[in-house]
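Onboarding guide, step 5: your first structure request.
Type a short instruction followed by the sequence, for example:

Predict the 3D structure of this protein.
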Amino acid sequence: MDEKILRMKELVGILSEAGKAYYQESRELMSNFEYDKLYDELVSLERETGVVLSLSPTQNVGYQVLSELPKEAHSSPMLSLDKTKEVSALQEWIGDQKGLLSWKLDGLTIVLTYENGTLSKAVTRGNGEIGEVITNNARVFSNIPLNIAYDGQLVLRGEAVIKYSDFNRINDEIGDVDAKYKNPRNLCSGSVRQLNNEITAQRNVNFEAFALVSADGVDFHNSRKEQFEWLRKLGFDVVEYREVTKDTLPETVAEFAKAVEDYDIPSDGLVLTYDDIAYGESLGRTAKFPRNSIAFKWADEIRETTLKEIEWSPSRTGLINPVAIFEPVELEGTTVSRASVHNISILEALELGEGDSITVYKANMIIPQIAENLTRSGKVQIPKICPVCGGNTEIRQVVDVKSLYCTNPDCQAKKIKSFSLLVSRDALNIDGLSEATLEKFIASGFIHEYADIFHLDQHKEAIVEMDGFGQKSYDNLVEAIKTASHTTLPRVIYGLGITGIGLANAKMLCRAFKYDFDAMRRAGAEELIDVDGIGGVLAEAWTAYFADTKNNRIVDHLLDELDIEAEQVETENQIFDGMTFVITGSVEQFANRKELQREIEARGGKATGSVTSKTTYLINNDTASNSSKNKKAKELGVPIISEEDFIKMMNQGVS
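The system replies with structure tokens like these:
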């Protein structure tokens, strides 16, 4: 069974990647014959094992937008674990028992329930008493089985996580340093709790099972290990664990500590659990903690050193980040000499000053941080001018956080970072224009705005004579620029560096506005918020960018240099052009609400999530209900129609 499940996971990955390349990127990774052969193998394995994995191409998982996440009380409180940082305390705790030592994963705890072999419910931990129902989102996690080879009721707990590799990939798509996600846990929490599960699917959320709550009629021979292995055979990814005793604990903890730096799943410690189920449960619990498990937190390796200076590092948005430079120290096996201080508020709270004695550590054994300032001189001077351009700086406070910004719109640091984003892989993808090269070209006056990149041939003689260049390098650069002039609209939009607008957001905007760039830049905040993945903050950033006359002029000049590929837009009769629909309640004539939404959009209409004065129709089969959307529609005079009414409009035209 294990080999078959592993093969199924491999096939899901291969087929999903091939399907994405074919349907979304117009390229083929394999022949139709090979695809069909692998697809048939997957179907055969699903029938044989009774297991169907999430994201399997054999399933059509409907995306759905909810107005809010329902709440649900847990059948029993989900308690936190008692903690220790001492291995000796773990040894004392385990005593003569056998235990399982596993990673303590840093994500969001989820409870899954299966009925008759099918995933029926997924609920977040919430406050331990009441969680949020996220079943639609769980169905599009990257590795959850939708169907399992077990017909009884199964309840299990696990951690929803986003791997560091996926976290870095998602952040790489975001050019604005201020808009990047701070850590995988925050990104995971937001992804799991989305109202639109299409966004959840894009984030590649993983589920790692760590506890079996109940499974009707299965004898696990009083062993947690048996439970883990049973779950693994059903197709679940189970948290990595080791069997331990009092004597083997120190060595095993050391093995985990050595592995944590290269571990792709965020972890903030370990969990030790008694293998003997009955023994663990007989110990009961305290008011706060169960007594059958205990958490081990990494004892931070802390080193004392001397702060040499605060380096001020400007970004593309004008934010100037303080970075502490200190005498090098060894931490967790590597030499470190710098740590981000993040903002002025933290700088002031630590009362940092050159020459201060500070202690440093690696958060979760990875990211260097200042733990404490022992002397607290507070002598750091916040620069009044930008270290790059000499322009004035100002401190801005957002909520309770103070940060330093350069106010000069022509700051060279801003320019370099902006051009660097425009020529990056996911934007125009101009090979040969590194940050160092851009810095030279900007300093030499060759580049003032984006369009100037396409006229570097005017400076051929000077470029060929530059250090690191020559005729061949110049020819390669010109050819790369020529190739980059043929591009797509989402790449261009991403390359503009509008705060928070990554490549995924750019694609959503293009689809929503049918690749009409002028309509996009004229759009108001309300129109933008209706687009999946665009909230109030991003809408404000977008409208502010295009409210600036200079930005529009620069963009127009850039567009004059580009040959943007024409996108295939639906050519159905556009009978719903200019109309806005809201869909609520269950659907009967369509597979799901997403399919209904596609029919609307194919005919020129738009489907949004909330009823406003701009809504043309609310589609609800229960037209007489007192739901909040129905009430809002009646208040605003928006007609409420059923699916049958909509289908008549679709088939006969709008009267």
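Each response can be followed by summary notes, for example: The chain has a mean pLDDT of 85.
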